[in-house]
Write a structure and sequence with these properties.
elongated; 14 helices; 32% strand; 36 strands; alpha+beta; 4-stranded antiparallel beta sheet
Length: 558
């Protein structure tokens, strides 16, 4: 009986032992599976043997500074810095621990949990659009734009300036490098891409051969009616430019320059000619008109149509129709503008000074007999030109920087002032005048005009109803300027009181060449020009002048 009893108990014992073993294995699986493998490193952070929550905290603490740090990205010798958050980069901490914790009944996996080693990269989140935008913005300073090849004429020869490749950050490739290297390497190498110019050196060389060389290959023959003349290639070249278009160089002609080159060549060959304005003279007191003469010109549109084609043609011939070039001031206009009487005259006096009187006489002689057509602008500087010894001018006192000194043409301001007053009382439009810096007592206050080459001018436009014929007369101590024309206005002058009066200073000068000065007050004054017609005031013009004090200058160098 005992033996039989033992036999019946054995299966229960075995079963009980099995249950106990399974229970222990399950407890081990639950216990070991809740922790990371003993040697687990993620992105350089040791998180082995920890629960999921512990490992998550350890990983955050270990990576948060690194994950927030600026990312250096090198492009050769240059570099940029990226803010990870702004660039759309972040660490996915949960995913980084995925599969490392949690219960497992797989004996192999359980063994790895107890004894294994894990070394993996942290999982990263990347916003591709933000990353691309951050790279583009930060690398903008690294961009070198490509430079197109150029074709120009230098001293009449076609010259090619080679094109230059550009470079810019390759955003997709650089973004991929950042995704791969972020949190794993100290420095990430960006990628630069080469960008070719729109116009390459080869394309510029082709344009040189196809067009530029032909421009200067020889003259172009221009036929105008039954006559012809040549325009040299060197004269055409300055009007030609080569501009990028659709990846090549297109030829463009500057209309103003090309037409001017054709006109100049035609006039030099006496095929083309400018219209000649009528002139008015009065040698014996009676006005005479020298008739105008029409000229011959070319049509600009026809030149622009014919010349570029002729440059490339085998016979290099351009047929351009001629057209009349009428004078601006025609015979009819001249006759209609003839003066009918004196419209203004003015006289200023001056002290005896041979050199000044000599200069005044030369300038007055040049001004005498000048005819200013209706609408024409007159410039005294342009009419007289630079005052030089070669023209007969002598050195005489002038005002410079508030002091008297000597220069060629000193005294011409006497002519300018007298002319200005003739302009003033004629009613013509005053365009430019400059009073002397300090007041000179022989001139009307506020109605005087100095002149200096080349910038200080006396200009007016003839806005009267007829032409203005200018005559001058110089005596030993006076100059008179008279305007003959068609009376348009009765002019009345007014003058206000002196205001803002300032006293002069005193200067003692030991320099050689010093010119002494007498003292005079500085002040402001306003003059009026009242325009009347038929006894009625039509308009009034006011001119205000500021005079500085004329300092007393005592010269001590004998």
């Amino acid at each position: 009986m005992p033996t039989s009893t033992r036999r019946r108990r054995w299966p229960w014992v075995v079963a009980t032992a099995g249950v106990v073993g399974l229970a222990g294995y399950g407890a081990l699986a639950l216990s070991a599976g809740s922790k990371t493998p003993g040697d687990t490193v993620i992105g350089g952070v040791q998180v082995g043997g920890k629960t999921h929550a512990q490992a998550l905290d350890a990983l955050r603490n270990g990576l948060q500074d690194k994950a927030a740090a600026t990312i250096p990205v090198r492009f050769g010798e240059e570099s940029i810095q990226l803010d990870p958050a702004a660039a759309g980069l972040a660490v996915d901490y949960d995913k980084s621990l995925e599969g490392l914790t949690g219960a497992t009944f797989n004996p192999v996996a359980l063994y790895d949990r107890l004894t294994g080693s894990v070394d993996r990269e942290p999982a990263r989140l990347v916003d591709q659009a933000r990353l691309a935008g951050a790279i583009t913005a930060a690398a903008r300073g690294l961009t070198d734009k490509p430079v197109d090849a150029k074709l120009t004429f230098v001293d009449g020869a076609a010259t090619v300036t080679p094109g230059v490749d550009g470079q810019a950050a390759d955003v997709p490739a650089t973004g991929a490098a950042i995704e791969k290297g972020w949190l794993l390497t100290d420095t990430i190498n960006g990628v630069l891409a080469t960008t070719a110019p729109e116009v390459t050196t080869e394309e510029a060389e082709a344009a040189k051969s196809d067009v530029a060389a032909k421009v200067v290959a020889g003259p172009v023959i221009v036929k105008v009616g039954d006559e012809s003349f040549e325009v040299a290639g060197d004269a055409i070249a300055p009007s030609v430019t080569f501009v990028p278009k659709d990846g090549a160089l297109a030829t463009e002609y500057d209309e103003k320059k090309l037409v001017a080159a054709v006109r100049k060549a035609g006039q030099e060959a006496k095929v083309l000619r400018k219209g000649k304005d009528a002139t008015v003279t009065s040698a014996d007191g009676n006005f005479k008109v020298v008739p105008s003469v029409d000229g011959l010109d070319v049509d600009s549109a026809a030149v622009m149509s014919a010349m570029p084609a002729a440059v490339l043609a085998a016979d290099r011939t351009a047929v351009v129709p001629g057209k009349a070039s009428p004078a601006k001031f025609t015979t009819a206009k001249a006759k209609a503008s003839l003066p009918t009487g004196v419209i203004s005259t003015f006289t200023t006096n001056f002290p005896y000074a041979p050199d000044r009187t000599h200069n005044i006489t030369i300038a007055a002689r040049a001004l005498n007999g000048t005819y200013v057509a209706p609408g024409e602008t007159f410039s005294l500087n342009a009419h007289l030109g630079q005052r030089t010894p070669e023209k007969g001018y002598r050195g005489a006192p002038v005002i410079y920087d508030g002091r008297l000194t000597k220069d060629y043409g000193g005294g011409i301001s006497q002519v300018s002032t007298t002319l200005f007053n003739a302009i003033f009382f004629s009613g013509a439009q005053i365009d430019e005048y400059h009073p002397h810096s300090f007041y000179i007592s022989r001139y009307p206050e506020g109605r005087e005009a100095t002149i200096s080459w080349p910038d200080v001018d006396n200009r007016f436009t003839n806005t009267t109803d007829g032409g203005i014929f200018i005559t001058t007369q110089v005596t030993a101590n006076a100059i008179t300027v008279t305007f003959q024309g068609k009376k348009t206005w009765d002019i009345e002058a007014t003058k206000g009181p002196r205001v803002n009066v300032t006293k002069p200073g005193k200067i003692t000068d030991d320099e050689k060449g010093c010119v002494p000065q007498s003292p005079a007050d500085g002040f402001d004054v306003t003059v009026g020009r009242i325009f009347k017609q038929g006894g009625k005031v039509v308009k009034t013009q006011y001119l205000t002048t500021h005079y500085i004090p004329e300092d007393l200058v005592i010269c001590t160098n004998p």
